TrEMBL record:
InterPro entries: UstYa-like. Belongs to the ustYa family. This is Tat pathway signal sequence. Pathway: Mycotoxin biosynthesis. It comes from Colletotrichum asianum. Residues 1-16 have a biased composition (Basic and acidic residues).
Length: 327
């Protein structure tokens, strides 16, 4: 009878909110003489039950802790992999985008695929004989050539502030230029050098000074571009095709390359541009620099240029001895 009442009371554990079922004192007193051994047994069983409950709860706790530990390990591994790949990607981008040397324009560097249009018979606004549209295209391309460099950027580049050319237009900074614009300038000088008679304002700079066949400025530009091309080392593979109208393998120049997005770089340079005509550059010994750049190849100077004028400036060409496209 005692056991049955105990089981009944145990069913009310949640009602009393106690870990043990409360004992019926009257029933316990009336049966004390005959059930003392049972009480001891019951107490023992209650302790066993409590221990079982404790072990069950403890087991569940450890199982939960084991599960949580695994989760932590998995999350840690995933995080490590993500960090590893992110670090590798950063090193890759740095190695591809000038991470070995500092440049404030690195933030503008975005790699993309771009297909060249470089076939021998292709046309672009930068190809062809001198004409107003060609000069306008080059003027636009070089319109962001001069940039302002601040003190912090100059220091990070390891340049000497005591000799750097200061911009005295009220905004401070130092005169700078992204090297890509110097490369483009050199290309333009080489192009102008072929028809120098049409550009009298450039003749003092691009003419032979000491009887050399290749004028010094042109020679400088050619070797500067050689170094730049070798420095970047475009490893895009060109393949050859058989074509109907030529007996030799014909290189396919119009393929995809990995390129820096030009619009981004140009926009960055434009945002850091300064007007050199208002820069008031002053040499410490020679004074104010009044002729910052040679006049641009204004389209006005060749507005009435004809094809005959160009050919006369270039001179006769013996096409029979000229190298063909296969050379």
């Amino acid at each position: 009878m005692f056991n049955s009442s105990r089981r009944k009371d145990e069913n009310n554990d949640n009602e009393h909110g106690l870990p043990f079922s409360p004992i019926d004192e009257e029933q316990a007193a009336s049966s004390y003489s005959t059930t003392s051994s049972l009480l001891a047994e019951d107490a023992t069983e209650k302790l066993k039950l409590t221990n079982r409950r404790h072990r069950w709860e403890q087991g569940n706790l450890f199982r939960w802790l084991d599960f949580g530990t695994k989760d932590v390990v998995y999350i840690g591994l995933i995080a490590a992999i993500v960090i590893l790949f992110a670090s590798a990607e950063d090193r890759y981008v740095s190695s591809r985008c000038g991470g070995l040397t500092y440049t404030p324009a690195k933030e503008a560097v975005v790699l993309e695929k771009a297909k060249f249009h470089a076939g021998l018979n292709d046309t672009t606004r930068f190809r062809g004989d001198p004409r107003p549209e060609l000069e306008d295209a080059w003027d636009e391309l070089l319109s962001a050539i001069n940039i302002r460099v601040d003190d912090d950027e100059l220091t990070k580049m390891g340049r000497d502030a005591s000799t750097a050319v200061k911009i005295n237009d009220g905004e401070g900074g130092y005169a700078g230029m992204l090297d890509i614009f110097h490369h483009l300038h050199c290309l333009r000088m080489i192009r102008i050098g072929y028809t120098l008679d049409l550009y009298p304002t450039y003749q003092p700079m691009l003419s032979s000074q000491m009887g050399e066949l290749v004028p010094m400025h042109i020679d400088h530009c050619i070797d500067e571009l050689r170094q730049a091309v070798m420095c970047r080392a475009d490893v895009t593979v060109l393949t050859s095709d058989w074509i109907d109208w030529h007996p030799k393998p014909w290189l396919n120049f119009n393929v995809e390359h990995e390129c820096v997005n030009w619009d981004n770089v140009f926009q960055w340079s434009k945002e850091h541009w300064y007007d050199i005509k208002k820069a008031n550059l002053v040499h410490p010994h020679f004074g104010r620099f009044s002729n910052p750049m040679a006049p641009t190849c204004s389209s006005k100077s060749i507005q009435n240029l004809t094809f005959a004028d160009v050919r006369n400036a270039i001179g006769p060409v013996d096409w029979s001895t000229s190298p063909g496209p296969h050379h």
